[in-house]
Amino acid sequence: MLYLEDFAPGQTYGSGRLTVTEADVIRFAKEFDPQPFHLDAEAAKDTLFRGLAASGWHTAAMTMKLLQGGELTPAGGIIGAGFEELSWPRPVRPGDVLRVHSEILEVRASQSRPTQGVIKVRGTTINQDDKPVQVFVGHLIVQARPSA
């Protein structure tokens, strides 16, 4: 568990890996993003994606799962305070193996709440070919180290 004082710009953290299955893509899409290019491989061939692709929101959810089990372990949990950037530079396909690389960009103590602060993080979700499939810059609320 890492407190606010343990973070510094330039630090990097990794995650485990997650393999995306066709069943996962379709299951998520049926419930949350039921568009043809997320639901049906044959119908997806004639779309912008030229094949079945995971929803960007599914990619975001898988990223969260990888972050939760990864090396970035802020005290209090991974608590988001918002994003400056969120992009999906390429689609996630069934069979892709994803991992997340996180870099600390900024660390700042809260002026109004001395028990916490905020870290600014760039998270890049990468596929098995080392190609980014999602990039975000977000702010996480992190507990400060308790006073002795």
What's the layout of helices and strands?
Elements: E1 12-13, E2 18-19, H1 22-32, H2 36-39, H3 41-44, H4 56-68, E3 79-87, E4 97-109, E5 116-126, E6 132-143
Antiparallel strand pairs: 1-4, 2-4, 3-6, 4-5, 5-6
InterPro entries: HotDog_dom_sf (IPR029069), MaoC-like_dom (IPR002539), MCH/BMMD (IPR052342)
Protein name: MaoC family dehydratase
Organism: Pararhodobacter zhoushanensis
Describe this structure in words.
- Residues 9-111 form the MaoC-like domain.
- This is MaoC family dehydratase.
- InterPro entries: HotDog_dom_sf, MaoC-like_dom, MCH/BMMD.
- There is one protein chain.
- The protein is an alpha+beta fold.
- The chain is built from four helices and six strands.
- It has helices at residues 22-32, 36-39, 41-44, 56-68, and strands at 12-13, 18-19, 79-87, 97-109, 116-126, 132-143.
- Strands 1, 2, 3, 4, 5 and 6 form a six-stranded antiparallel beta sheet that branches.
- It is elongated and about 60 Å long.
Q: How many strands, what sense, and barrel or not for the largest sheet?
A: 6 strands, antiparallel
Order of helices and strands: EEHHHHEEEE
SS elements, strand count: 6
CATH topology: Thiol Ester Dehydrase, Chain A
Number of domain modules = 1
CATH architecture title: Roll
Q: Give the overall form.
A: elongated
Strand content: 25-35%
